[in-house]
Request: fold
Amino acid sequence: MPTSADLSPQERLALITVLNALPDPSFKMLVFALQPPAGVLPSDLAAQGDRVFTLLQWVEGTGPGLGLLQEILSQITGKPLVERPTRLATADWAVLFSRFSPYDFAVMQGAFLKAFQEVYAKGFWQVRPDNPPLNEPGQIQKLITTFDDPLLAVRFVEQVVAAFRGAKDGKPRDLAEFERWRDRIAQTFNVPPAAPPAPNTAARHPYLLVALEAHGSDVNLYPELRVSGVEKPLGFGACPKTCTLAEAAAQISGWIHQAEAALEAEACDDGEVTLEVFLPCQYLDEDIAANWQMQDKRGGEVTLGNYRRFLVRSLERVRDRSIQRALARRWQLLDSCQDIRALCHQFHRQAQCPSEKGSLQAMLKDLDALGLKFVAQLPTDATRRLDLLYEIIDAAVPIALWASAPASDDAATLEAEFDALLGACQWTNFADLARGWRLHRLRSPAATPIRLLCDRPDRLPHLPDPNREEDLLVAL
Reply:
């Protein structure tokens, strides 16, 4: 659900306006559904504006958050609070192309063709065999505005910026206006950050993304098949599913078989999909490698850790754009390092369990940490343990390791296990990271309690919009 940070100042103003204008019976319905504690709101005799202000303070403070308020409000009014546009305005295109000069044609043409290939996974001339002319800036402008795809627009500007930045003519170009336009359009249309270039652009690895989202006592499962280097997901006949957590492993097993059957028609370097599980924070510390009983092709049961290369990623990070932006910046630093294995000695080493809430998150942010080795024991108190995991999530650290229940109190021994894992694989290639992670667990019994959380700013699952009721309907 959206958080306070997801709403722009204009959207927050719109929310207050809608709440102030609600008829009294509708406002009472909203209050009844949210269930604020007795005494929080002024009496019914108070002005509705005062009651709205107090309700919002409680919702954003100790209450359930603006996401739930918007969901209930949409049910009451029959329409979402904010209807996001799906197409760029004519003025947006005009502003963009006014930044180019007549001498920028070569850059524009190359950027358009590269962006088209990146977005649609096919060359422009394959999609348009009628050979529309691309011989002048006006023709490129007409074509890209005809497609009117926000993703294509953002990727086009990214390619333009990269081309100008890498120009060898010695004439520096002011790119601030292009970057501001790109960022504004990306935020308006919720365009994810571009995938960082793979270390080996020829390598194509398949990934089955499965996001688990709590749904009462059950979970919603959202599957997506992706191939590195291809921005859009591949269809493989799987649909979202609602089931109990105990049934999730069997359901995911079926999707793995479907995905690998679909990959037979794809030119992948590996026919075995790597499973990326996006877990809510409350499940991050669980040993799914041992506890999830998967079903192989013959119907036999085998633990996830033995059956499949897998990685755990954070569900909360998917919808939080501020975390994604921080993650993208750190990921770029991680990915550009020439000697990535040497970085494991530069990860933040947390030898003592923090006693104050928020201190770990503050330290990781101030250090701009690219990784975390939490060699201290997690607190035994479940609430404090969950708080620490949330701090790791919110700090946007790309790689984090900790031990759920260390077999030894020796921090040096635990750190040696962390370093053995990190030194055996290429972290920015998640297929290789998952391979090294499984191999290390199989070889070292001391690695059993180790938990690995890794995230990158791209290859994110497309989750339903919590403001659209029809998006939340999942098959049982």
User: Anything to note?
Assistant: Residues 4-77 form one domain. The two ends are 21 Å apart (CA to CA). The chain has 18 helices and eleven strands.
